[in-house]
Amino acid sequence: LIALLPVPAQMLGEYWGNPLAVSLFAVYASAVSGMEVVLIVVALRGRLFVAPPDRPFARQLILGSLSPMVVFLTSIPLAFASTTLALLWWLVGSVLAGWLLGRMNAVPPEDPAQAR
Known about the structure:
The protein has helices spanning about 5-15, 20-45, 55-80, 85-100. It is mainly alpha-helical.
């Protein structure tokens, strides 16, 4: 999935005024974000973390990985109204999502390498 990212990125770069190019990139970036969520869930269920996170931090990890998907998917209807508005939403939505996630105050697990 990541190896093919230059294709929609190049299309977006050349045709940034075309809502289909913006939408294609948004769908592709959402798929990448979705696969990150799958990776985190598999690692949590399989107990593959060196320092297992507690529930609030695991929830924050998943929500943090879902937030780009939400921002990109909500930009698709905006792209058909204005591609510039959709691109600006990527910036504003990402900052807003990061700010909201930062207010969760979940504490990461202690690094076992530094605990010694």
